[in-house]
């Protein structure tokens, strides 16, 4: 075995002076040396001969032997064999199947309710309803270690069906197999879920952790277009590699529930969902302006342009197309409201809230007026009528606005703006709602609104008739109709300054924009230009144009001009807005203004309304690789255009005016207290009824894509596309003529298929439901089974999916909820966003203005004026800058020429940025850069360091790290630990290989501490008797090798997981049995002791780490848990012996993180102690094929030692800068000074290390009976 002495590895039992192996060299060689002190393995003296008796050369005196011979951590063999056993036995699948059978047996409603509340079986006796006695949550303070008695051999009680108390559905965002393999960024996510799933299983949960493949979509389609290869072949090959990678890393999944979105049995039900949406009027087709990319030959939605980084650099143009939409806006209010029901990060909730952008307000209807009529006729009105609002009344010319005017005048202390005209004794107040009267009472205006004014109406009416006659006489009837019929809807919120605003804004896409601009050619050109801009450009455009029309505001007796703008997008195109002004302090005037708003809102002259930033979901794409729509249309054409809208009222598409957008839904009749069932009682599962008079014929599902033809991507070969000169606006599928047209023989009608496909989000919006019942051929899923497993208890994925995948999934879920297929309003109970792993994607090279290279490490000092450039790549202090040696310049002339050539190649003709008026910054390609010790340098110029730009790992950026290379060199357990140790798992981190050697060293030391060669262990006679013969602890026995059932299990693993053949079965068996004949056993430092015999201090330390590691897992602080493992190891390695119970606790705690090495420790434990502990089914042999419950997978999470507090003592934590170092006992007899002195002596080495770094102890904080903290800075 090996120990570390002064930084060197030393073989135990020998003189340390004889052989020293530096750790780096040691690991690099992967070898060990034997025959130390002149003796060979048999203890005989060496005589210069080799094992065969032949003479050796003096140069080869060091003998190379196998790693296992000298007790090295042989991770390759260890990991391989356990991966085979775990996957062949389908551990999660067995649990899932068994648990579902138990649930099905429970027909009693009482038991079902208890199960849903995580309570069933908790008070039952052993063997009933799946429990062995009274149990509770594990790993909590105050629990004893009695359950360890049933746990020694992987057993959890007498009844094997009784160890799971409840379900736990954990899910990763399933990967998209467009690239050839997973990178370490993916591995982080899978590592998190694998740790939590193993932790939950050890806490007696039935864990459901499925895996699948999001195969349809744009990335694979683009790769197919580039390579001109069938995307099915690409997906199949990549999935095979993904499975192999996941298996090598020790991840456990429910492989029997695997799904693939491009398989018929899956996308059949995606098409079924869309059919139901269409039948329930939630899917429709309309012609509108969309974002078109010639590069992709496809429509890109606004959501994708904003959120998909890979699409942001595409050239986008606006074209008008007939496209499918889903009415996600119908669910906008519920999507916001139900966020309160789920445990999601506030960041994600806020992102969804802002994305939906719900606003509550009111809409009033107003008449618009062309300003030219005001100019021509206003003078006559003023002369003959002193009340101009009589004819130009903008809202309804009703008594309510007269009341508002009176209220406004009263509030502000003004005189009446103008006289009112009212019929005598007209009752104003009685027709108003009670809430309006209450508001009036608040501001004291009801009494002043009594109708006691007398006005000579005959004179006014006479004048009015004369004026109207004059107007009618001078204008045609069409102008008068325009004047009377031009009404618009204005949206108001409390934030809008209705009483002070001087502008109203209208969208360039408003349906009546042509009436409002009255044929102004200049404005028409502006509108046509703005409509074709993409949404991001429009949102940034702050230019406004006067429309030539106004709206009259009777409240302030002013005309308000209407301005045309581009930032009001399509989803709000039907309404006008006031310019929002930021509210200042809540002054008395603002309060009264709010009351004015409340008066209008509570009257019958306004309508309550919710508007959203969210748009209906554009659901059409023009690619090949995606789910086809199951719709066909009669192949009738008029002027080359189809003239119907799907899901909407039939319209003629030759009219360029778009339909009224469905986002602007009136919510006047909504009741906030209504249940969702009442709000959506019209949504139901409907049968397909195809009639000859229907415009849309719904095809039998699944509708499959036509056979791939690589010529479809040839731009010049477009003979399959009708009525087009190029591919703009036409789907790839339109080239498959034989697939497009079908004739119905029953009614003799020819139909044309829908040529667009669904977006890549279609299949991923409901996949978590299909996981539960993936093989159901007759239904989308089993309702009873799905409702039991829902909602997903933990969903792990990146925050970049907050407003696309997560929002769309919630929308699909709510629709299926309305269909009464599921009982839960939300799909994901808890969401955890792991941070991104960043890696260098590009680099900055710095030069001065003379193009002399500057190393990045010196740039900061140059900008601060601390240094100046001396020569290429070097700098010197300012006060030494003039002291250069002429001879040195001559010596470096030749090297300068070489550098000049490199500089020319790197920066010649490239653009740059200037920083601090001192240096230039060039963006260079990674092909010129080499990495050394986590720093980046120019190739062939090792003195020139460049600045890395860290970005998210992706194939398109070329900065991915292949985990296979790391696993091959360090092992899966090492990579899992290292990737967690980089930092908090919920934060973005820079990828670095630095430190992985330390992680590997930790695992190697751990293995050397727990495992020894048999001859190195001085076992007692009793221990030797307990160690069974080799046949007793075979990983797979002879009977299982010969049994066909077990061969089929291995063959299934070989074929499905590692893409092997039948020949691989024997190879797998050899791997399993290869190490069965070795002499590796538990170290004799591990002693079996009863709980009462274990020292109290060891129990306290063990309890501390159980508590800390358990809390770390429960709170997703996995990086901190890794630190505690290393501290735990540092504590126990100094003990004179390690109690067996502590050893078992350690490996159980470690198992979720490093399953392979933990399972190896567990197996060595079973070999030594299984004979003495005779537990049912494990008495004779370990064979994991006969008895898979011997695996550590079935063990329970460790509980705390029960410590008797007979002595009044306290364990004080000794810390340095609040970092725990050791414990010290206090029996309440020592003074404070003595305790500090003892603590100082105990951690003297740690303090000395800090002092050697130039630090000093500035304070010692003593919290009595709790901690002593040495503050060293």
UniProtKB/TrEMBL annotation:
Region (Disordered): 31-61, 119-159, 648-681, 873-898
Positions with biased composition (Acidic residues): 656-678
Transmembrane segments: none
Record-annotated Aminoacyl-tRNA synthetase class Ia domain positions: 161-356, 606-671, 951-989
Enzyme Commission designation: 6.1.1.4
Statement: the UniProt record of this protein carries the keyword Chloroplast: no
InterPro entries: aa-tRNA-synth_Ia, Leu-tRNA-ligase, M/V/L/I-tRNA-synth_anticd-bd, Rossmann-like_a/b/a_fold, tRNAsynth_Ia_anticodon-bd
Ranges for domain Methionyl/Valyl/Leucyl/Isoleucyl-tRNA synthetase anticodon-binding: 1103-1201
Residue stretches of biased makeup (Basic and acidic residues): 142-159
GO cellular component: mitochondrion
Compositionally biased spans, kind Low complexity: 120-129
Biological process annotations from GO: leucyl-tRNA aminoacylation; mitochondrial translation
Origin: domain of life: Eukaryota
Ranges of Basic residues composition bias in the record: 41-54
Swiss-Prot/TrEMBL keywords: Aminoacyl-tRNA synthetase, ATP-binding, Ligase, Nucleotide-binding, Protein biosynthesis
GO molecular function, one term: leucine-tRNA ligase activity
Reaction(s) this enzyme catalyzes, per UniProt: tRNA(Leu) + L-leucine + ATP = L-leucyl-tRNA(Leu) + AMP + diphosphate
Family: Belongs to the class-I aminoacyl-tRNA synthetase family.
PANTHER family per the UniProt record, alphabetical: LEUCINE--TRNA LIGASE, MITOCHONDRIAL (PTHR43740:SF2), LEUCYL-TRNA SYNTHETASE (PTHR43740)
Protein known as: leucine--tRNA ligase
Organism: Plasmodium yoelii yoelii
Lineage: Eukaryota, Sar, Alveolata, Apicomplexa, Aconoidasida
């Amino acid at each position: 075995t090996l120990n570390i002495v002064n930084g060197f590895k030393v073989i135990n039992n020998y003189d340390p002076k004889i052989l020293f192996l530096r750790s780096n060299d040691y690991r690099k060689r992967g070898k060990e040396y034997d025959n130390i002190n002149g003796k060979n393995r048999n203890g005989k003296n060496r005589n210069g001969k080799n094992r065969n008796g032949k003479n050796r050369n003096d140069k080869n005196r060091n003998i190379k032997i196998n790693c296992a011979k000298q007790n090295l951590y042989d991770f390759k063999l260890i990991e391989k064999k356990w991966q085979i056993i775990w996957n062949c036995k389908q551990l999660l699948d067995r649990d899932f199947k068994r648990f579902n059978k138990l649930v099905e047996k429970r027909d009693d409603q009482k038991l079902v309710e208890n199960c849903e509340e995580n309570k069933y079986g908790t008070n039952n006796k052993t063997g009933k309803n799946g429990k062995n006695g009274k149990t509770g949550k594990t790993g909590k303070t105050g629990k004893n270690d009695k359950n360890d008695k049933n746990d020694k051999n992987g057993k959890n009680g007498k009844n094997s069906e009784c160890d799971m108390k409840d379900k736990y559905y954990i899910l990763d965002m399933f990967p998209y197999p467009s690239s050839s393999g997973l990178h370490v960024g993916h591995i982080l996510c899978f590592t998190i879920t694998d740790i939590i799933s193993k932790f939950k299983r050890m806490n007696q949960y039935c864990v459901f952790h499925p895996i699948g493949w999001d195969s349809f979509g744009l990335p694979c389609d683009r790769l197919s277009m580039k390579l001109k290869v069938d995307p099915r072949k690409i997906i199949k090959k990549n999935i095979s590699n993904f499975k192999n990678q996941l298996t090598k890393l020790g991840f456990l999944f429910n492989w029997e529930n695997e799904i693939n979105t491009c398989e018929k049995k899956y996308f059949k039900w995606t098409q079924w969902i869309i059919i139901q949406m269409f039948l329930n009027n939630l899917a429709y087709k309309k012609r509108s302006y969309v974002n078109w990319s010639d590069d992709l030959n496809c429509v890109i939605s606004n959501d994708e342009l904003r959120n998909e980084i890979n699409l942001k650099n595409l050239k986008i143009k606006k074209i008008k197309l007939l496209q499918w939409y889903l009415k996600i806006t119908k669910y906008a209010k519920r999507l916001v409201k139900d966020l309160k029901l789920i445990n999601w990060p506030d960041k994600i909730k806020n992102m969804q809230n802002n994305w939906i952008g719900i606003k509550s307000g009111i809409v009033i209807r107003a008449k618009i007026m062309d300003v030219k009529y005001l100019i021509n006729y206003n003078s006559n009105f003023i002369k003959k009528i002193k009340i101009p609002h009589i004819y130009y009344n903008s809202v309804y010319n009703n008594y309510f606005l007269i009341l508002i005017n009176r209220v406004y005048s009263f509030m502000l202390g003004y005189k009446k703006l103008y006289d009112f005209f009212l019929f005598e004794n007209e009752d104003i107040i009685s027709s108003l709602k009670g809430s309006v009267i209450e508001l009036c009472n608040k501001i004291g205006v009801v009494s002043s609104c009594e109708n006691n004014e007398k006005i000579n109406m005959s004179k006014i009416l006479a004048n009015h008739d004369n004026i109207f006659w004059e107007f009618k006489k001078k204008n045609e009837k069409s102008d008068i109709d325009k004047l009377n019929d031009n009404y618009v809807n204005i949206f108001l919120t409390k934030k809008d300054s209705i009483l002070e605003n001087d502008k109203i804004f209208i969208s360039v896409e408003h349906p009546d924009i042509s009436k409002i601009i009255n044929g102004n050619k200049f404005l028409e050109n502006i509108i046509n230009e703005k409509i074709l801009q993409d949404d991001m450009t429009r949102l940034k455009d702050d230019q406004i144009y006067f429309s030539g029309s106004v709206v009259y505001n009777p409240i302030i007796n002013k005309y308000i001009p209407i301005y045309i703008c581009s930032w009001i997008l399509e989803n709000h195109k039907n309404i006008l807005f006031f310019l929002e002004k930021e509210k200042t302090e809540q002054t008395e005037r603002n309060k009264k203004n709010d009351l004015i708003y409340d008066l209008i809102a509570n009257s019958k002259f306004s309508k309550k309304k919710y508007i959203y930033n969210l748009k209906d979901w554009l659901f059409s794409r023009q690619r090949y690789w995606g789910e086809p729509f199951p719709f066909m249309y009669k192949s009738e054409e008029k002027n080359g255009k189809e003239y119907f809208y799907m899901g909407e009222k039939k319209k003629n598409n030759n009219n360029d005016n778009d339909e009224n957008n469905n986002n602007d839904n009136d919510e006047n009749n909504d009741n906030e207290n209504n249940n969702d069932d009442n709000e959506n009682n019209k949504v139901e599962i409907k049968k397909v009824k195809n009639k000859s008079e229907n415009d849309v014929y719904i095809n039998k599902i699944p509708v499959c894509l036509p056979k791939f033809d690589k010529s479809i991507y040839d731009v010049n070969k477009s003979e399959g596309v009708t009525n087009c000169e190029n591919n703009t606006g036409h789907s790839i599928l339109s080239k498959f003529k034989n697939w497009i047209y079908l004739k119905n023989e029953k009614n003799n009608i020819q139909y044309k298929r829908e040529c667009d496909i669904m977006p890549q989000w279609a299949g991923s919006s409901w996949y978590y439901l299909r996981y539960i019942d993936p093989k159901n051929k007759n239904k989308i899923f089993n309702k009873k089974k799905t409702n039991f497993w829902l909602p997903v208890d933990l969903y792990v994925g990146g925050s970049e999916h907050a407003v696309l995948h997560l929002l769309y999934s919630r929308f699909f879920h709510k629709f299926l909820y309305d269909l009464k297929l599921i009982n839960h309003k939300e799909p994901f109970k808890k969401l955890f966003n792991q941070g991104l792993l960043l890696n260098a994607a590009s680099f900055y090279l710095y030069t001065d203005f003379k193009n002399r290279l500057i190393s990045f490490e010196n740039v900061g000092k140059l900008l601060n004026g601390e240094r100046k450039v001396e020569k290429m790549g070097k700098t010197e202090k300012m006060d030494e800058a003039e002291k250069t040696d002429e001879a040195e310049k001559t010596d470096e002339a030749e090297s300068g020429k070489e550098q000049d050539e490199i500089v020319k190649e790197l920066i010649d003709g490239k653009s740059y940025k200037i920083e601090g008026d001192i240096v230039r910054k060039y963006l260079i390609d990674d092909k010129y850069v080499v990495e050394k010790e986590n720093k980046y340098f120019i190739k062939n110029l090792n003195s020139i360091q460049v600045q890395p730009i860290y970005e998210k790992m992706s194939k398109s950026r070329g900065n991915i790290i292949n985990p296979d290379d790391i696993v091959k060199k360090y092992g899966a357990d090492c990579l899992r630990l290292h990737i967690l140790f980089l930092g908090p798992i919920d934060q973005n981190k820079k990828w670095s290989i630095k430190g992985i050697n330390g992680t590997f060293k930790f695992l190697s030391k751990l293995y050397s501490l727990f495992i020894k060669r048999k001859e190195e262990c001085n076992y007692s006679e009793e221990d030797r008797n307990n160690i069974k013969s080799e046949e007793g602890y075979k990983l797979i026995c002879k009977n299982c090798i010969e049994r066909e059932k077990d061969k089929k299990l291995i063959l299934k693993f070989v074929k499905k997981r590692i893409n092997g053949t039948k020949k691989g079965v024997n190879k797998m068996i050899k791997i399993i049995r290869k190490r069965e004949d070795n002499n590796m056993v538990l170290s004799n430092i591990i002693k079996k002791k009863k709980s009462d015999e274990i020292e109290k201090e060891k129990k306290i330390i063990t309890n501390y780490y159980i508590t800390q590691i358990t809390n770390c897992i429960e709170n997703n602080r996995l990086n901190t848990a890794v630190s505690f493992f290393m501290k735990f190891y540092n504590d126990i390695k100094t003990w004179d012996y390690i109690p067996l119970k502590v050893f078992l606790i350690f490996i159980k705690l470690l198992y979720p993180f490093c399953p392979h090495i933990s399972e190896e420790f567990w197996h060595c434990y079973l070999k030594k102690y299984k004979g003495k502990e005779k537990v049912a089914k494990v008495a004779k042999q370990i064979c994991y094929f006969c008895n898979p419950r011997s695996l550590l997978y079935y063990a329970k999470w460790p509980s705390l030692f029960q410590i008797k507090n007979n002595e009044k003592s306290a364990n004080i934590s000794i810390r340095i800068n609040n970092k725990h170092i050791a414990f010290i006992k206090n029996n309440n007899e020592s003074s404070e000074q003595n305790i500090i002195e003892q603590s100082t002596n105990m951690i003297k080495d740690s303090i000395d290390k800090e002092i050697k770094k130039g630090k000093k102890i500035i304070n010692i904080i003593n919290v009595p009976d709790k901690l002593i903290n040495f503050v060293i800075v």
